[in-house]
Design goal:
Length: 320
């Protein structure tokens, strides 16, 4: 199923250090469920029960003292069993069968996984640092190392979704290799020149890249503290258009603003990336690859503009 989201709440592991990618990997990993009710297994168990009831009642109907109500019950059980069998044969497992109480069978092999189907223009990541011990709560002070440029590709769907619960919901193809392999030098030296066009190298799948735009940090304990915001320094006038990623980085100590209440001062990206122990909210802006841009003759990456709503895909099913 698909549903929209505006942020990801990532659980911070109880470790001294971890990477942001580790938190994303844990959030999108294939999870085995032990309490999921399998609808098809439940219908099969119900059909078996009805068939056994029908056989037992049929044997009792043969007795001379059987009542009319019991004969009616036999016909009713057979009718319900027939309707249930028809639904199973036709694959209508989600259909409610009137008059039939479906058994609840727990699937022993069900999985659940969440991935991004439509990456949002701005990705908000909430690092959940709360640790609960019964009625007591504390703050997880683990250092979460986050990058300036985040590659979200491994955590997004590739356009092809799998319905098998034993494998991930979607996966990206491996790095492409050239479809043409040149002959060994000894053979190439004596081979006659060929006018046949050689197959081109397969294009690599597009990457889903994000660049850090702002960081909200919390200093203090779980029940009290102070928030400080870091944001990339605006450029130009009017609507802020972030620079190309392949431009020269700002000099040390510049390019970002640190806002603590009404105190604002300029800092550098190196200061922002050191805030791994207090990072609470991370905001990333999506960037795209623009062939031939940037003025340097090569490929450049530009921030996103006007991207549609974000969607998260989730699957929950079981082996049948």
């Amino acid at each position: 199923m698909h549903f929209p989201f505006d942020n990801w709440q990532l659980a911070v592991p109880r470790l001294a250090n971890c990477r942001l990618e580790d938190c994303l990997m844990d959030y999108t990993r294939l999870e085995v469920l032990t309490d999921c009710i399998c609808r098809k297994c439940s219908m099969r168990a119900t059909l078996l029960r009805l068939e056994q009831d029908a056989e037992r009642l049929t044997a009792e109907v043969g007795k001379p003292t059987v009542s009319q109500s019991k004969k009616k019950r036999v016909r009713e059980v057979r009718r319900l069993a027939g309707r249930l069998k028809s639904a199973l044969d036709e694959g209508r497992i989600e259909e409610e069968i009137k008059g039939v109480k479906i058994e609840k069978v727990i699937s022993r092999a069900s999985t659940k996984q969440a991935m991004v189907a439509r990456p949002p223009p701005v990705l908000a990541l909430h690092l959940n640092r709360s640790v609960h011990f019964g009625a007591y709560a504390s703050k997880n002070m683990a250092r979460v190392h986050f990058p300036e440029v985040l590659d979200l590709t491994p955590f997004t769907t590739s356009g092809m979704l799998s319905t098998s619960p034993s494998i991930p919901i979607s996966s990206h193809p491996p790095t492409p290799i050239p479809t043409y392999m040149p002959p060994p030098p000894s053979i190439a030296a004596v081979a006659a020149p060929s006018t046949k066009t050689r197959p081109a190298t397969q294009q690599a799948p597009p990457r889903v890249l994000y660049r850090l735009a702002a960081v909200v940090c919390h200093y203090g304990q779980h029940s009290f503290g102070h928030y400080v915001c870091f944001r990339r320094k605006p450029r130009g006038e009017g609507r802020v258009v972030p620079p190309w990623l392949d431009e020269l980085a700002a000099s040390s100590g510049k390019g970002w603003l640190r806002a603590s209440d009404d105190a604002v001062r300029e800092v550098g990206i190196e200061t922002v990336l050191r805030e791994n122990a207090g990072a609470f909210m991370l905001y990333y802006e999506r960037v795209f690859k623009n062939e031939g841009g940037g003025g340097g003759g090569g490929a450049s990456i530009r921030s996103s503009v006007g991207v549609g709503p974000d969607v998260r895909a989730e699957r929950k099913d079981g082996w049948r």
